[in-house]
Amino acid sequence: MITLKKVLVPTDFSEASKVAIKYARNFASAYHGSVHVVHVLPDASVTPWAFGVEPEVMGLSSAEREKRWKERAAEQMKQLFSEAERKDLELHLTTVVGHPVQQILQYATEQEVDLIVMGTHGRSTEGPNIGQNFPWEPPIGSVAERVVRGAPCPVLSVRNPEHEFVTP
């Protein structure tokens, strides 16, 4: 029997990831499970420009910028769920720093999640410019594709806009 007690949804706050959250909510409700929402921030020590050049963060250290962005991400994740859902669902909202694929796979393994639901932007590694400038270089796949390849559990990839299930 399949049980989905822990459903992980990585989010970048895009429309595609919001659709994935709808699926995760429904799975968690149906199986009386929990929803784990993870947002991955880039490592500011590796890519110092990752947090932008907004006036409010200029002059702050990398650690202070990271803290500020973690606070923003936590607030955005909280807003993905209604107040009723926050009460009814067992939610785990986490922001981590690092490479998205590595962090998602690490979280899924450590938390022993049963399913990863991910939004995909529908981008492909195929196209007219792939390999044009550097034909010896293999195309790099999307985060969703690389998560599927390395995941310790099933992964449901949700495209937006595409076919959505109708819920009664």
TrEMBL record:
The keyword Coiled coil applies. The keyword Coiled coil applies. Residues 5-159 form the UspA domain. Residues 60-90 form a coiled coil. Keywords: Coiled coil. InterPro entries: Rossmann-like_a/b/a_fold, Universal_stress_UspA, UspA. Belongs to the universal stress protein A family. This is Universal stress protein family protein. It comes from Candidatus Methylomirabilis lanthanidiphila.
